[in-house]
Amino acid sequence: MNAAPEPGEFDSIVNALRVVMREQEENLREIDRMSEVSFRLWLNSVAGRIAKAAGVSLARMHAYLGDLTTILTNARSTLRRSYHDEYRRARRVPPTSAG
Amino acid sequence: MPDFIRQHLRRFTTSVEQSDALSPAQRASLLRGYEEALVNEAPPRLVLIGQAGVGKSKTINALFNAGQEVGHSRATTDRAWTIPVQQVSGSHGTLEVVDMPGIGDDIANYRRYLDLYREILPTADAVVWIHAAKDRTVQLVQQALKDLFGPSPELVGRLVFGLNKADEMGPHDWNTRANLPSELQRAALLDREGAFTRSIAQTLPAWRGRAVSYAALHHYNLTALFKEMMYAVPEQRRWVLEQRMDLADFTALVDRKLLRAAQARTLAEVPAATPEAPTGAPAPAPGLRERPNPERPRSVDEALAALSDVQWQELQTDRARFQEFVRRVEREMGR
């Protein structure tokens, strides 16, 4: 083990330690963020299969999943009135004319 | 299981169970389907490349808390030459690890294995190439990259380069008290990361990563290595890797006094959770009234280091108490 640092050196080592600890926290936050995005993508990919097996529409499945990203992605990509209506029914929100 | 997945599953289960539009059979099918999909998702498969003794096993242990011996192996092919896929038990789940024999180690074996390498690479979630930080020779790595990834440029994104044994980098003056490279070592490591990254990018221009220096033995910079691995894994599979993450604690090897001083300064900088300042002097934590060391402290750092673990935990969780403690120590020092 190294010898105990001098007072001035102590400060610089403590600061170096803080920098490394902060970098660690930032890395962990980024890892967490990537994981969550990844999980949503995966969920979107398996939702269709699960819904089909249960005889439930995809829109209803998304409503149960309650995942905004998944819902918006599908709403944008399909733009089908039936999708929106089915989703609202499942969420118990009355359909509007804007569809 | 990470919190967000647990919460998601709970929310989904509640929504399904409360829905009166579903038959009991549909409810059961949905819940079963979701849970089966979660459970049946294949474990992450990591292909490891690197010379013998470069620290591949130590790296896996440090990233996934996989202290157990490697489990059973199964052949990926029934040819005479095979590459075993090892089932490794980490503390948060199993992963598959393929140790590519011969690459960067034994030219004769490398040539014989080349076709098998090309078969196994597309099955990898990430290809982790481990190199000793102090080793400047990259010609063999470059040649192998051309052979392996030249015909499969779509796999380049799965490559991660880890420069292990950062502690052995010149001038060999790792700070064991802080568990950090010295300033000179840190500068040398940054140079090496840059040079290594450039040499890989010259060989594989499509590769967009960066080489990461770390020390598996000292648990140093493991988060940076893991982050690079996450980038390399196909997007839909990243959560599967993160689920298994259990990084060895870097701070466990840091001198207690240094660690507390660093944590205390960070604590002093972080804005309080509630914007309004506490009125009046907050009562110090009960255990803090009788500090174990009756001598007058010479510095705040010293006073913090003298606290028991319980006292330190109490201070860390209450910023007002922490500030009061620091003020009190400063008053005592000035007396």
UniProtKB/TrEMBL annotation, chain A:
Q: What is the source species?
A: Streptomyces dioscori
Task: Tell me the domain of life.
Answer: Bacteria
Q: What name does UniProt use for this protein?
A: Uncharacterized protein
From TrEMBL, chain B:
Q: What Gene Ontology molecular-function terms does this entry list?
A: GTP binding
Q: Which residue numbers delimit the G domain?
A: 46-143
Q: Which SUPFAM superfamilies match?
A: P-loop containing nucleoside triphosphate hydrolases (SSF52540)
CDD domains per UniProt: Ras_like_GTPase (cd00882)
Biased composition (Basic and acidic residues) is annotated at: 288-301
* Compositionally biased tracts (Low complexity): 270-282
| Residue span of region Disordered | 270-302
Q: Which InterPro entries does the annotation name?
A: GTP-bd, P-loop_NTPase
Q: What is this protein called?
A: G domain-containing protein
- Organism ancestry: Bacteria, Bacillati, Actinomycetota, Actinomycetes, Kitasatosporales
